[in-house]
Design brief:
The protein contains 14 helices and 9 strands. By secondary structure, the protein is of the alpha/beta class. It folds into 3 domains: 70 residues, no CATH class; 196 residues, Rossmann fold, CATH 3.40.50; 56 residues, no CATH class.
C-alpha cells in the first residue's frame, strides 16, 4: 500500500513562538537603530549642505515612556494574533501536545493501481466468500479511488446486516489489515452513548476526545477503519435534563462526507476532516435503527453461513496457524456433523476450536 500525508486539522504550529518580553526587546532595538540611522542621515545631509557637523546625542535617542507603552501594546497584539492563528488559543498545554502529532498531517493509505485492488478483493473474497456483497462494495471503491487519483482510499459507509456469528467484525478487521490501516471496534451494547465515539466537552468527569480521534492521533492515520458492532442495540441515551447522547445521533454527521469534512470535536473544539475514515456498521436486524442512519448507510444483507463456508474458513485459519491437517480435519468433522446444510457452530465457535487446537498442539509434553 502507498502512503501519503494530508492535513486533517484546522490548526497551525509555529516552530518558535516569541514571548511578549522577547518582542519588546526586539521592537525597542529596532526603534533605536531606526532613529540612529535617521540622525546619521540628517547629519550627512547637513554637512553636504555646508552646515556644521554635530555630535550624535545618544541620550536623545533613548525611548520615552510613550514609546515603551506603544511597544508593549504591539507586542501583546502580535502574540494574541499568533495565538489566534494556531486555532488552539483555548487549549491547555496537554491538549496542544496531543494535537502536535498532527503537525505534519496524517497518513492515508491508497491502492497503487487497479490490479492491486483486484488482488486485495480476491484475497478477501477467497478467505470469506459469504461476505461477497461487502467485498464487492470495497472492490468498486478501491477501483474508483485509483481512477480518480485520490491521495487515499475512501469508501462509502457500510451497514452489514446479517445473522450473528458470521464474521462481520472479523471481515472488517481483515480488511483493515489488508489495507494496512488501524481498525478500532466500538461495541454499541457496552458503549451506547455518543461519548465513546466522538468524545465529550471538557468539564465532564470523563471528558475525552472519543475513539475516532484517539485512533487518528495514536496512529497518525487519517483513514482508519471504525467498526460499530451491533449498532441496532445502541438504544436511546439521555441526560436528566432531556439532552440526547445516543450513538446513532453522533454517527449521522460522520457518515455524510460533506459534514465529516468540517466536523468539530466537542473536546478539543477544533475542526477536523474525518471524511477519510472508513465506517463499517454491523447489525443483526434493522429494528431500532433510525431512518436518517439507514438513508446515509443503506444496509447490505448477508446470508447465513453454510457448512462449506465454515469448513473452508477452518482450513484457511488452520493453515495460517500452522496446524496439522488431522487437527483441522477433526474440526471439519464436528462442523459437518451438525444437522442441516445451514446452521451448526458460528464463526466465533470455529475460531475458538482452532485456537484450542493450536494450544493443544503447541503445549509441551509433561514426562
Amino acid at each position: 500500500m502507498l502512503k501519503s500525508n494530508i492535513p486533517i486539522a484546522n490548526i497551525r504550529f509555529f516552530d518558535k513562538t516569541p514571548t511578549v518580553a522577547d518582542l519588546e526587546r526586539r521592537f525597542s532595538r529596532f526603534l533605536r537603530g531606526f532613529r540612529e540611522q535617521r540622525c546619521v542621515a540628517r547629519q550627512i545631509e547637513r554637512v553636504a549642505e555646508g552646515g556644521p557637523k554635530e555630535d550624535f546625542d545618544l541620550y536623545g535617542n533613548s525611548l520615552s515612556t510613550q514609546d515603551k507603552i506603544k511597544i508593549e501594546r504591539r507586542a501583546l497584539r502580535y502574540v494574541e494574533r499568533q495565538e489566534a492563528a494556531t486555532g488552539m488559543q483555548h487549549l491547555g498545554t496537554n491538549e496542544r501536545n496531543a494535537l502536535r502529532r498532527l503537525q505534519n498531517g496524517a497518513t492515508v493509505s491508497r491502492v497503487s493501481n487497479e490490479h492491486d485492488a483486484d488482488v486485495l478483493a480476491a484475497t478477501l473474497h477467497e478467505e470469506m466468500p459469504w461476505m461477497g456483497p461487502a467485498t464487492e462494495h470495497i472492490w468498486h471503491a478501491m477501483q474508483k479511488s485509483v481512477r480518480e487519483g485520490r491521495p487515499g482510499f475512501q469508501f462509502a459507509p457500510l451497514l452489514l446486516l446479517g445473522p450473528p456469528g458470521i464474521g462481520k467484525s472479523h471481515w472488517a478487521r481483515r480488511l483493515g489489515k489488508l489495507l494496512e490501516v488501524p481498525t478500532t471496534v466500538v461495541e454499541a451494547t457496552g458503549e451506547p452513548a455518543s461519548f465513546a465515539l466522538v468524545g465529550s466537552q471538557r468539564g465532564w468527569g470523563s471528558a475525552g476526545p472519543g475513539k475516532v480521534l484517539e485512533t487518528i492521533l495514536r496512529e497518525k492515520c487519517a483513514n482508519p477503519i471504525m467498526v460499530v458492532d451491533e449498532v441496532e442495540k445502541a438504544g436511546e441515551v439521555s441526560s436528566e435534563k432531556g439532552l440526547r447522547f445516543s450513538l446513532t445521533d453522533a454517527l449521522l454527521p460522520l457518515l455524510e462526507s460533506m459534514t465529516a469534512k468540517t466536523w468539530k470535536c466537542p473536546y478539543y473544539r477544533v475542526q477536523f476532516d474525518l471524511s477519510w475514515v472508513g465506517w463499517v456498521l454491523t447489525a443483526n436486524s434493522l429494528r431500532g435503527l433510525p431512518e436518517p442512519l439507514l438513508s446515509r448507510c443503506p444496509p447490505l444483507e448477508l446470508p447465513p453461513m453454510s457448512k462449506q463456508h465454515l469448513v473452508g474458513f477452518a482450513w484457511n485459519l488452520g493453515k495460517a496457524r500452522n496446524l496439522p491437517d488431522d487437527a483441522v480435519a477433526g474440526i471439519e468433522d464436528i462442523i459437518l456433523s451438525c444437522q442441516g446444510s445451514i446452521g451448526g457452530p458460528s464463526l466465533r465457535t470455529v475460531k475458538r476450536m482452532i485456537e484450542r487446537a493450536e494450544i493443544a498442539y503447541t503445549r509441551p509434553l509433561l514426562h
